Amino acid sequence: MRIDSVDKLNHWREKCLKKRAAQKRKVLVCLGPGCLASGSDEILGELKKILSEKKIKGVSVESIKKTGCHGLCARGPLVVIEPEGIFYSRVKKSNVAEIVETTLEKGELVEKLLYKDPSDEQTIVDYKKIPFYARQQRISLRNVGQIDPDDIDDYIASGGYSALARALNGMKPQEVIDEISRSGLRGRGGGGFPTGRKWATCAGIDSDIRYVLCNGDEGDPGAFMDRCIMEGDPHSVLEGMIICAYAVGSREGYIYVREEYPLAVVNLQKAIDAAHERGLLGENIMGSGFTYDARISRGGGAFVCGESSALMKSVAGEIGEPRAKYIRSVVRGLHDKPTVLNNVETFATVPVIINKGGDWFASIGTETSTGTKAFSLAGKVCNTGLIEVPMGISLREIIYDIGGGIPEGREFKAVQTGGPSGGCLPADKLNLPVDFDTLTEAGSMMGSGGMIVMDNRTCMVDVARYFLNFLVSESCGKCVPCREGLYQLHGLCVKICEGKAVEESLALMERLSKVIQTASLCGLGQSGPNPFVSTVSYFRDEYLAHIRDEKCPAGICRDLITYTINDKCTGCLACIEVCPVDAITGEKKIKHVLDQEKCTQCGSCYAVCKFEAVDIE
Amino acid sequence: MVHITINGKVIKATEGEMLLSVIRRHGIEIPALCHHEAIEPTGNCRLCMVEITREEWDGWKKHVTSCLYPVEEGLIVSTHTPDVIEIRKTILDLQLANCPDSEVIQKMAEEYGIYKTSYEVVPEGDNCIMCYACTRICEVLGRSAISAVGRGHRKEIAPPFGAEPPDCIGCLACAQICPTDVIPWTDRDNTRTIWDRKFELISCKECGRQTIAREFADYLIEKRNIPREYFEICDNCKRSELARKMGEIVARAQEVAI
Amino acid sequence: MTQQDVTRLQGIFGRNPREPGSLIAVLQDIQREFHYLPREALSETAKALEVPLSKVYSAATFYSAFSLTPRGENIIRVCKGTACHIKGADLLLDQLESGLGIKPGETTPDLKYTIEVVNCVGACAMAPVMIVNAKYHGNVPCNRALRLVKKA
Amino acid sequence: MKFRFEVNPSLCTGCRTCELACAFAHAQNQKPGRSRIYPLAYEPDKYVPVACLQCDDAACVKSCMFDALKRNEVTGAVELDRERCIKCMACVAACPFGCALLDDVQDEIVKCDLCGGNPACATFCPTKALAYKKI
């Protein structure tokens, strides 16, 4: 069915909604990255098998909906039953038959799979009432975890492509740009550049060709929002891109997806094909006479390709080495033509702004950081998962109210935001409002939205070493401050972790960091020292403990710690089995012995011991 | 024509020119390792960084590589501020750790008061400073026989698969342009060896002296439509030949006169 | 290269526009079909797309998705994203390295296993994460790492 | 082109003044440079001054892959831009008259540049075997 007018889109939506209403219940199975890693594909298979064999009134195989990330990955695999919103967590394959019988057939609840609030042991049935969800406001993630990403009609039924219809019919390109400018939307990829201004610049340049590109190279380790959007709601990205193309006068573009996200490529391609078939992408979109086409460009596994000029080189088939951007890529971008490059979340937000208005969006969040922002919450926090919150919310609310605090009753130590370009913020910054400018002022940055919580079993020197190591191998290797500077900074950091550094090293590292920040060619180098700079300013004592006392307070740096087995050892053999260097010997039910000569301090024994019989010193 | 201020002096420059050439033309010395007029600037070495500002920037400044920054009306440039010197010093310090044996780097570092690197010397380093001059000149030549290989700190300049480069024509442009003289080559008898590949050198038909690589000549003959015979004799013998021919003309003229 | 390989290669060239801009896409297709980039395939790519061989080689070594050596039947990818790092990804690697006798990036001599380290696979909520072939495993305790591999 | 460099070999006495004049005209660091003009004997005691003929379709210009050799439209000379030259020796090999050559003392390519429009050799040639004339 080709949709060649706004009326047709509305009719088609009505039809899709009717078809949807025919199903009494919907069973949503989350196939987001988290749930998939917990085996949700097996749940889906089992559910399909059982429902195809069974006859239940108002429920069939058609009732199963495989969705993208629902959010609360920590409790995965998740199965949600609509319209009630019954939230079943940690579902096993063996539970599926019970869910079908009890809930789908009898309309009763499977108590043991329901969410229990850790604070008061209260059972919560409807996921919307779980604090993790209740505190969120979803705009860019509006459909993620709710719709079937492979079904364009599911997107249309949820109001999809109505913003595009609105823009193409009755809005001039400039009006679209004005609406985006009014919304105050800033780029969600990390830089926070005003989206409206970027579009206006591109539209204002005299050129026969303009490109609209989507940056799906979510390279920051610890971030997976864009992955979830591309996998779980690919049409929202496409719709945003088409609206942008209409606003700036572009006829073609690319979605650059990183190599590590094969499912995102598959789902986006399906979305592109489906949109083509419906007449929502390609020639004469919705009969308006406007033409825009988008293709997928797959990355090759290089973090630096998240940088705009490197990304454009990669799209053009070259190696991703950034160029100096004294002329910005919005002026001279892909194939030297004016190019708008926005990230996935930014584009996914655009349709909502067009539908609800820039003023509405600007009323959410803070004055300079409007709207909401998606974050991936990971690390040492109870409710790891995907969230979206209004800008200006405090770190504390995110980590404690939504995230449920630190597991095993440990102490919060730091939160890392902004990936390798960001920094680590300590406990006394927990009340800071989360917005672009505040985080930058505090020595970190918003970044694309990865938020990794660290507890007292995380060594901050080790974290700096980790990021520097990452950057040394991910630097493109073109300019000296980044290639040689980060290499030396990393080397000095390793020395600290090994207890072989002198105190003067810190001053040298700080001086070097400053030069790397000012003299590097692209953003990777310019922000490369940030993880070191922020940790050394907030956790200097920890650095000094490594240097002066040759101690790692968190018990992580292998050269500065020793493991010993204490009398709590029950002789269970677990550590012997796991020790990669066979340093532990002993027999069943007899206290094991650790040979310090052989021990490499990897900590595997500590990780597997269930009796707290391994001590770290 | 645009007007810029360099170190307090107003200077006229042509639109499209890069800052570095204007600065150097006015006798101000700025170090640079990856810059060469025959190749496009890329900004690898970062030594030519200068500080720029504008009246309307209200005190805000930024650091840019002058080799890549086009002149703009009203630009205010400072070439030797403490920050700029700190950048150059640090970069030379880093380069000295990277290639402690390079005389070029040693000399440049000494000019900035660095005699020994503050950093750990990079193990297994050579004198390559990754300026890409060699790969860029090879590309200008239209061959691209060598390229940057790998990524990050392990990046190196090498021919494909580290083997004899099939597209090399033995012209030596890479070795000649290399600022730290790190590309090894030899000419022995009538054989040139570079990147482990051997090339036949043309021997002068008259005196036997070696000139350029046969493949290089073939490339020029084909690309630039130069007669093949021009390359068969060395420049010495060609001059003698010209003298002989001119002598013949003189002799003939004298005969006629007599 | 066998005749069959040449045919596969021609198929890849046929699917992509024959222009320098297709370089990365072609290399990705070769990597997917052959599980590595054979030397002859790179030479053929250079000819087919009219790109200097050095640039093909440069791209093949710049992007970490490409491998110039044959990889194992089973690819084990250990995520070393930030969340995985602080939740003990190194322990998984210790187990795999000692259990299989190879380091990340290497392949066992019998070509059965290859260990790869990935910067982040975007499943941070389930850290530490390990992918055996296409199957994701979340919250992997170190003493389960080898068992998951042997099960593949 | 408004001027032409003319050589009348029959007037040459082999006094080598031109060579000296050229070397001094191209002095570097107060040291005489390598001469770009070479009085050569074609028979014992019989000399001709050999110098660049500034050919119209110059092989040296064509052979330079880096655009280091360009014609000065005013003087008519093919001039070498030292900043662009990388000493690949293509011009030396290509010139049919051997009039571009490597100065191995200064390590640079040298060729006649007509002294920017006032060739010293012609000025000092006592017999007017060399002349720079308006056309």
What is the CA–CA distance across the termini of chain C? 29 Å
Q: Class of chain D in CATH?
A: Alpha Beta
Order of helices and strands of chain C: HHHHEHHEEEH
- What low-confidence regions of chain D span 5 or more consecutive residues with pLDDT below 50? none
Order of helices and strands of chain D: EHEEHEEHEEHE
What would CATH call the class of the largest domain in chain C?
Alpha Beta
- Across the major sheet of chain C, the strand order is 2-1-3-4
Strand content of chain D: 25-35%
Query: Quick one: which chains have the greatest interface?
Result: A-C, 63 and 51 residues
Provide the residue-averaged pLDDT of chain C: 93
Radius of gyration of chain C: 17 Å
Number of continuous helical runs of chain D: 4
Strand content of chain C: 5-15%
CATH fold category name of chain D: Alpha-Beta Plaits
How would you describe what is shown here?
- Chain A is of the alpha/beta class and 617 residues long.
- Helices cover 40% and strands 13% of the residues of chain A.
- Chain A has five domains: 20-129, Glutaredoxin (3-Layer(aba) Sandwich); 152-362, NADH-ubiquinone oxidoreductase 51kDa subunit (Rossmann fold); 372-458, Ubiquitin-like (UB roll); 461-548, NADH-ubiquinone oxidoreductase 51kDa subunit, iron-sulphur binding domain (de novo design (two linked rop proteins), Up-down Bundle), CATH 1.20.1440.230; 562-616, Alpha-Beta Plaits (2-Layer Sandwich), CATH 3.30.70.20.
- In chain A, strand 8 (252-257), helix 12 and strand 9 form a beta-alpha-beta unit.
- Helix content of chain B is 31%, strand content 19%.
- Chain B has 258 residues and is of the alpha+beta class.
- Chain B has helices at residues 19-25, 82-98, 103-111, 133-140, 173-177, 214-224, 235-257; strands spanning 2-6, 9-13, 49-54, 62-65, 75-78, 147-149, 156-158, 185-188, 191-194, 197-203, 210-213.
- Chain C has helices at 3-15, 23-34, 39-49, 53-62, 82-86, 89-100, 145-151; strands at residues 74-79, 113-118, 130-132, 135-137.
- Chain C has a four-stranded mixed β-sheet with strand order 2-1-3-4, covered by helices on one side.
- In chain C, helix 1 (3-15) runs antiparallel to helix 2, helix 2 packs antiparallel against helix 3 (39-49) and helix 3 packs across helix 4.
- The radius of gyration of chain C is 17 Å and the shape is elongated.
- Chains in contact: A-B, A-C, B-C, B-D.
